[in-house]
């Protein structure tokens, strides 16, 4: 990048300058977001297809800034990763989720497994945050299966992350592991055998045209068969229609998540909708 520095200047258009400016402010606001308590967790139910029961939810981070309004994680997570802020933010998410899981367990006497997204950066660098979170889990005594961690495929190919040791530590602590966005990364099937993974989440890009596109249909079918043979359960992401749900259920897919069932919602709404009604 250094060698390119001067050439790059030629490409620096006003819109790029605006973007750099925008980005700088975004970073500043992101730095303050934690202390200003602008983050919150949303929850989206993960439905067991056979029974319709809900015993799981994915935790999705939300940022509400006083002037920006709602900022999408798709926009701020990459920036948080590049700046390293994801370590602190991610630690906050992990702690809040663990406490929420405990609260619901105590209040409703049932386990809602909370599935948390973990950035690859967290795996590489978190160090002290990791051990602190592990002691919190021990202290809370969530019991096995109270927490699931969602990681992405690329991470498993990167030998330097110490991911293997961490996954073992998870196992010991009763934390389950899901492989997120399955099928979109650098797929090497070897790691599925090598690592102890509990769930494959089929990316929503394969679900979108599932009903009309025969290759997506075959792909999903093959993923489900393979996952089951390897002792994993399958979660389909982005399920929006009744037809998709029916097809996935017929294929033997274990769980589904998507707008068909519910949008992500606040803890209070989730509790009202799925825990107090005892629908599941
Ligand atoms: P993801 O992990 O793949 O999360 C699923 C995304 O799909 C969520 O977007 C969710 O709101 C959306 N979604 C759920 N059902 C449907 C559906 O039926 N149709 C469609 N089109 N979309 C659906 P969201 O909440 O905007 O999050 C975007 C991404 O941001 C997540 O993708 C995840 O990669 C990242 N993210 C969110 N929260 C966290 C977090 O706490 N930590 C980290 N590291 N990343 C997070
Ligand atoms: Ca996810
Ligand atoms: Ca996903
Ligand atoms: Ca994604």
UniProtKB/TrEMBL annotation:
<feature type="domain" description="EAL">
    <location>
        <begin position="23"/>
        <end position="278"/>
    </location>
</feature>
<protein>
    <submittedName>
        <fullName>EAL domain-containing protein</fullName>
    </submittedName>
</protein>
